[in-house]
Amino acid sequence: MADPSEKKRNPAAIKAIPQHEVEARLLREKTARLKELRLAHEATNARAGRPAVLSGQKKLKKRTRKSADKSQSLSDWLATQQNEGRRG
Question: Are 23 and 29 in contact (CB under 8 A)?
Fold first, then answer.
C-alpha cells in the first residue's frame, strides 16, 4: 500500500498507475466492447432467422471413404492381422 503521507507530499503519486494496470484496464475495456459487438451481431442473426456462427467453431466435414472398392470386410482384415502374426 502506498504511504498516505507520500500522497500529501507528492500529488503525482496519486495519478501514477503502473503500466501493467493500464494495459489490463485497456484489455478489459476492449474485451467488453468486443463482447457487446458479438452479442449484437448474434441477436441480429437470430432475428433474421440465420443460424449464428459461434466463435471458435469450424464447420465439421463428414468423413467419407474415397473409394468403397478399397475397403475390405472386417473378417478379411482380421484374417490378415492374424496371418501377419498379430494376436486377436
Answer: no
Number of domains in the chain: 1
Distance between CA atoms of residues 79 and 86, nearest Å: 10
Q: Which three cell numbers stand for residue 46?
A: 437470430
In a domain, 21, yes or no: yes
Taking the C-alpha atoms of residue 51 and residue 8, their distance in angstroms, rounded to an integer, is 59
CA distance 82 to 54: 47
d(CA 59, CA 53): 9
- pTM value is 0.41
Task: Categorize the per-residue pLDDT at 65 as very low, low, confident or very high, splitting at 50, 70 and 90.
Answer: low
Question: Under a CB-based contact definition with an 8 Å cutoff, are residues 52 and 42 in contact?
Answer: yes
